[in-house]
Design goal:
Layout lengths: L12 E9 L5 E8 L5 E6 L3 H15 L23 E6 L5 E7 L4 E7 L3 H18 L5
Antiparallel strand pairs: 1-2, 2-3, 4-5, 5-6
């Protein structure tokens, strides 16, 4: 991502609202509300939702390049909007040092690149935390 050298006057995003699936089930329409302008009604092909999510994640990666890894949090100090996951899997990455974590959402997949040397430890940590959460229905200490 490059730094903008052109003078821009963008409208500040307020919210995204009113998601509506098209009659053919192939698109979702949303309204974008921003300051000092009328709402913009756009339609996104469902096949492109993962591209939109990847774009937004790319922006956050650019803005917060040095964010520390997540720590165990309690429900009181979490600042997230959970997304329902319908399945998890792995795939071969683009290089021998990469394994993809595939997260199945509602009708599309997101791929997350993992360092292949760390996947086994991620798996061990994930399994331990999942077992603790499901057994106690609370965050591990």
């Amino acid at each position: 991502m490059k730094t903008n050298t052109n003078i821009r006057n963008p409208h500040r995003l307020i919210t995204l609202t009113n998601p509506t699936i098209s009659h053919d089930g192939k698109h979702v329409a949303i309204e974008i509300h921003a300051e000092n302008t009328d709402p913009l009604d756009i339609e996104i092909p469902l096949t492109e939702i993962s591209t939109v999510v990847e774009f937004l994640v790319g922006i956050s990666r650019y803005v917060q390049q040095d964010t520390p890894p997540p720590s165990t949090k309690t429900p009181e100090n979490l600042d997230v909007s959970p997304i329902q996951v319908n399945g998890l899997g792995f795939a071969v990455g683009q290089t021998p040092d990469e394994i993809l974590l595939i997260v199945r959402l509602c009708g599309f997949d997101l791929a997350f690149a993992l360092d292949s040397s760390k996947v086994a430890q991620f798996g061990t940590d994930f399994a331990r935390t999942a077992l603790a959460l499901s057994a106690n229905n609370q965050m591990p200490q």
